[in-house]
Amino acid sequence: MTPTPRTDGRVERGNRTRRLILERGVAIASVEGLGGLSLGRLAGELKLSKSGVFALFGSKEDLQLATVRMAGKVFAQHVVQPARELPPGLGRLWHLCTRRLACSRDRVFPGGCFFRTVAAEYGAREGRIHDMVAAARADWTALLEQTVREAREAGEAHADTDVPQLVFEIAALLEAADAESVLRGDTDCYDRAAEGILRRLRGIATDPALLPERAQLKRND
Amino acid sequence: MTPTPRTDGRVERGNRTRRLILERGVAIASVEGLGGLSLGRLAGELKLSKSGVFALFGSKEDLQLATVRMAGKVFAQHVVQPARELPPGLGRLWHLCTRRLACSRDRVFPGGCFFRTVAAEYGAREGRIHDMVAAARADWTALLEQTVREAREAGEAHADTDVPQLVFEIAALLEAADAESVLRGDTDCYDRAAEGILRRLRGIATDPALLPERAQLKRND
DNA sequence: CCTACCGATCGGTAGG
DNA sequence: CCTACCGATCGGTAGG
């Protein structure tokens, strides 16, 4: 399956450069949006030629789309994957929420959550970037809804739980915390979001002991 | 106090042109952000000369700042002013929320709420635009907090109401509805936000009759 | 002296 | 990955 190796290692070097460009692109776009990306700027900051960057991606839009894909990998690694280590249930749902808050607090993306920034930037436009960003958000809410349903099937959440309503409110509090921390530079919002979510989860839990008593976001999780 | 009128009406014409430019600028920025504004584009769309647009504002940044101010007037007219007609209390608070949702649903700003878009665009940057956008958001949360406190002082809300926590959650649900309606093009989110807010307000109300039984956003309010 | 523009062009940079 | 360019457009300013 592996292509015949060229002993000069040009393919490998190209992949390294590509990753370098995308990591920088994700960081820039989380602060200034995907509109802040330009071939010349990325080339200048990384000491590459503009046409070299262009050759690796084919067009500016393809570079932007690849940047969105890279951001998705970062988000999955920091938020989605760690929650898989816990068994399905309210504990896993709560872990998804705290990891999402920690991802913002720790500035995994320097300008706050990449997807909130680009969703605001491309939400009202049309085209491939809008569609990919909307799909990424749909994946996130679908993951939250699936996790709630698993908790319900495990008997940890009441049978009459309104899943879309609950997930809408959870996602709203998570995003508001990210937005406010970036805009105002404070961290109270993380405790407020955690408290609001925890109150909502207590409302659907069949057993209060399934959830922590207090929102502990000081921990390194 | 009025300046001596020049019979040629040049000053008046300038003010009309200025308003025309800012109205277009607000519409463009709500969709594409303030970065989507350019002197040449505004001039082209309004059949003015680029230097004419420039002369009216002095610089691009001053044009952007004036655009933020104009958007503030629009928001005040559609959301803040109507709520003043109601007496202080939970009814006024609820009216602020429904007007805010209607402002998004009716696309008073074509790309969804102007301030959510530009807050995401400039939240992680520095400068005069960031500061003005942050101040506008602080004004909005301060208005909500003041309205909650008035309801508490009128005996309509419990004395132990955590005002900042409540306002954080209300603002989060309002913004999430706006963002989701723009990104996905549906309207369910308005009912979800209204339901979530109403549930929260019932939790602090001393008398359930102070609030509507159902979130009626179909009405023309 | 003022205003509200005009047509043309400044030095630079965009995507390609 | 490079240098060398293109058509266009950017924010801003000249004299009239």
Structure write-up:
Chain A has 221 residues and is mainly α. The first copy, chain A, contains nine helices and no strands. The first copy, chain A, has helices spanning 10-32, 39-45, 50-57, 60-84, 90-105, 114-122, 128-153, 163-184, 188-204. In chain A, α5 (90-105) packs antiparallel against α9 and α8 (163-184) runs antiparallel to α9 (188-204). The first copy, chain A, is elongated, with a radius of gyration of 20 Å. Residues 1-7 of chain A have low confidence and may be disordered. Chain B binds a DNA duplex (16 and 16 nucleotides) through residues 6, 8, 10-11, 13-14, 17, 38-40, 48-56, 59-60.
Task: Give the total of beta strands of chain A.
Answer: 0
Q: Tell me the strand percentage band of chain A.
A: under 5%
> Over all CA atoms, what is the radius of gyration of chain A?
20 Å
Distance between the termini of chain A: 39 Å
Averaged pLDDT of chain A, please? 91
Question: Share of helix among residues of chain A?
Answer: 55-70%
Largest interface, per-chain counts? A-B, 42 and 41 residues
Runs of chain A in which pLDDT lies below 50 for 5 or more consecutive residues are 1-7
**Sheet with the most strands of chain A?**
none
Q: Which structural class matches the secondary elements of chain A?
A: mainly alpha
Helices of chain A, by number, come to 9
Order of helices and strands of chain A: HHHHHHHHH
- Oligomerization status of the protein chains: homodimer
**What shape does the CA trace of chain A take?**
elongated
